[in-house]
Amino acid sequence: MADRPEAPDLVSEALYHLATSDPDSRLIDRTGMAEQDVRQIGELMTALARLGNAERALTEASLEYMKLNRNDMRALHYLIAAKNSGVVATAGAIAAHLGISTASTTKLLDRLEAGGHITRGPHPSDRRALAIAITPATHEAAMHTVGRQQSKRFHAAARLTREERDAVIRFLNDMANEITAGTERWARENAG
Description:
Blueprint: H1 7-14, H2 18-21, H3 35-66, H4 70-85, H5 91-98, H6 102-114, E1 118-122, E2 130-134, H7 136-150, H8 152-158, H9 162-189
Antiparallel strand pairs: 1-2
Helix pairs in contact: 3-7, 5-6
């Protein structure tokens, strides 16, 4: 059977289907669900996993190209968004966005400044704060690498109808809410 994929490929294809991940319904009660619906949901979960894998591969390639770590890239993305929004970025705003301490933010900004990725200057209205800005060279590099690749998502979304986009938005928000609530519940139940 030359057309049949190897066993690891078969497992990968079915990794997110309930028949292989939860065959005894210990995690998900599917009583009353049509087999076709269960199978289609498995295909949806597989598609989400493929998207996650593509996102990770893009992130890893971007990090390698830019020679930066994940928080460095998140900080640069924040600086680009702040610049495009006409907002003066500060170390405190970056710390809040990244969810890291001010000490960690200082180290991150020192590293980015030493690498020529950011500048620090006087804040236009707050003498206690510094304005943080991405350098033009790093901004261009980010736009022509990460930005260009990330913008391909727009084309996939543009091919959907408005109604389809509304459904996808509801689905993704609902899934994020389910995961967040479940994570918070799990953390409470398993707290020390």
